[in-house]
Amino acid sequence: MSNNNSLPRYGNFINNNWQDAVSGEVLTLKNPSDGSDLALIARGTQSDIDLAVASARKALSGEWGKMTATERGRVLHRMSEAVLKKIDLLAELEAKDVGKPITQARADVVALARYLEFYGASADKVHGDTLPYQNGFTVLSVYEPLGVTGHIIPWNYPMQIIGRSLGAALAMGNAAVVKPAEEACLTILEFGRIAQEAGLPAGALNIVTGLGLEAGAALSGHAGINHISFTGSLRTGEAVQAAAAKHAVPVTLELGGKSPQIVFADADLERALPFLVNAGIQNAGQTCSASSRILVQRAVYETVVAQMAERYRALKVGSALSDPSVGPVVSDRQKAIVDGFIELAQKDGLTIAAQGQMADGTPENGAYVLPTLVRDVPADHPLAQQEIFGPVQVIMPFDTEEEAIALANGTDFGLVCGIWTNDGARQLRMAHAVQSGQVFINNYGAGGGVELPFGGVKRSGHGREKGFEALYGFASLKTISLYHG
Fold it and tell me: What pLDDT shows up at residue 121?
């Protein structure tokens, strides 16, 4: 273990300044690949959130608030270019902090840059309308920034989620306070440096690290916040929404899922197979839109089970920087949760179709979980109902289209769905019938590209991020009625 005195130490980023928490307390980040201490971060609390919100409010009446939409877009473009120049640093930080294989971490850096590019180009393209009304009136609608937006970012995709959330908020002219997850936040802190160097005015972005029950709760219930964007667990999302409701603050919630891929007998299995596996084990299965349920028509069920099992047995689990198929989960706590589901499957007599294997030389103290494929899982079993958030997939047979729809819709969640069939009429019937925020036909994007609006239905949350639609979520629509006779 590292000596704490020798660890890198990160403060909060408030008003373009780095400062310790008001309390002076710190938290220790762990490297999930080997269990070592990685860095010290500030343990922010209510006092630090107060400072950050005050800084953001000041920015709205200062240089940032006076910028035109075009000028904001140019700042975001500079930030995008600066991110790509630091791709090696950001990827290494993400790999060490989250446990993400380095290739995946590099892809997330590119995605962050693309979000900033997309929203930079979108900033001056949000247009209002003129509305037909009574004679003698001209009525306009205009979009205005909400004010100060709060962003609570999870540990699984820090760069991607700050890109889609913060990028849209800044493009619309809001000032932001970001609270990253205490388990993994180094790339977000480094992003604060990048934003400052790229010329983002003081106060437009503020970052406060700390515990969810302290800094996160303080941000959610703060009277100076005008919108909250939260990605994370259902239970925490409920608490965030309840806290924001005390001040009638709108909330965008992305709360996870139990997303199915539905494979019909006429599907192109050769094309489908990589998507069936990769969408479940990417980032060690720690993806809100992970495809954790594979529903397969009985005529091809055994074939798909055998082919997925073969791929599972070839998966290698190892340290993030060795760039394995699957890295560690983010923490020992998360490992215990995922291991608990695998143990439950074994206790209940479910059949493990296949597991991956540890790579040679993998550190003993890492938070590693073997990728696990479980077959013939009953629809009401916890493994088929609850979000596991680890590299565990269940595979289940069905006979008819109606049964497939019932299975797909038979959980509390509705985030993403994949449908594999060459029958065009069935493609459309299924797309309309499944309860899901996104539907992919003969592909599976795990949220898809930057351009595609993303969010869920049912207990997967509400509101949309990504794409142009996200801009409206960070804006207030004002109607102006002019009487001129």
Answer: 98
